[in-house]
Amino acid sequence: MNTLRAYDINIVGLDNKRHEYDFTSGDAFFAALEQDLIEKGTIHTHVVLEKSETMIRLDFHITGTVEQTCDRSLDEYEEPVDTQQIMLLKFGDHNEELSDEIELIERSTATINVARYIFEFISLSLPMKRLHPRFRDEDENEADDEQNGKVIYRSDAEINDEDDQSAIDPRWAALRKLSDN
Fold first, then answer.
1. CB-based burial, 118-147: b 16+ in 10 Å, e otherwise
2. Which of 61-70, 118-127, 159-168 has the lowest mean pLDDT?
3. What distance in Å separates the CA atoms of residue 25 and residue 118, rounded to the nearest whole number?
4. Exposed, middle or buried: residue 38 (CB in 10 Å: 0-12, 13-18, 19+)?
5. Residue 128: CA atoms inside 13 Å, Cβ hemisphere, count?
6. What pLDDT does residue 176 have?
7. Using CA atoms, how far apart are residues 120 and 101, in angstroms rounded to an integer?
8. Is the C or the N end of the chain the one with fewer CB within 10 Å?
9. CA triplet 5, 69, 83: central angle to 5 degrees?
10. Which of 84, 93, 89 has the alpha carbon at shortest distance from 11?
11. d(Cα 108, Cα 147) in Å, to the nearest integer?
């Protein structure tokens, strides 16, 4: 947990104005969080804290790369991360999470730790389908072809079935007789 202490921001002595903080996170950051989603990465976070009488606004700009494992090939690759998120901390008489972007914190809170927010924002910015970049172009091309009405994969059995059905159907036979004239 000592690794995450670097992400503490002391809010008791802060004036009601804008403050800026920069954090660099590496493999030790992800290991200290005790999770399995991300094990390695290099992340730079710029946090703009705006304190007022009633709340604290945190603007996060997170950039860097995290190591992911491809779902298709199980190869490891670097996934780029670039996200901007906002977190609002409103002063109240108890701690409570009101929504994804708004939390109540007690007025007596001395420090806030932004490590959890940074990790959550990184996790949310990652794609659900983890594909190595060499497979992404293939998937995009297949999606484009399907949207344009092109059939990409047809087996020999499918082609033979269509030929057999057209020879058997008497309506097609009648039409072919007309076209031969």
1. bbebbeebbeeeebbeebeeeeeeeeeeee
2. 159-168
3. 9
4. buried
5. 0
6. 75
7. 11
8. C
9. 55
10. 89
11. 57
Residue with tokens 């992800």: 30
Whole-angstrom distance, CA of residue 172 vs CA of residue 179:
11
Nearest to 128 by CA among 167, 169, 79: 79
Q: Which of 113, 85, 114, 112 is nearest to 100 (CA)?
A: 85
Beta-bridged to residue 66, according to DSSP, are 41, 79
Q: What angle do CA 19, 28, 99 make, to 5 degrees?
A: 50
- 6-48 tens-digit pLDDT: 999 999 888 999 999 999 999 999 999 888 889 899 999 999 9
Residue whose entry in the numeric block shows the structure tokens 């007309």: 178
Report the amino acid identity of residue 49.
L
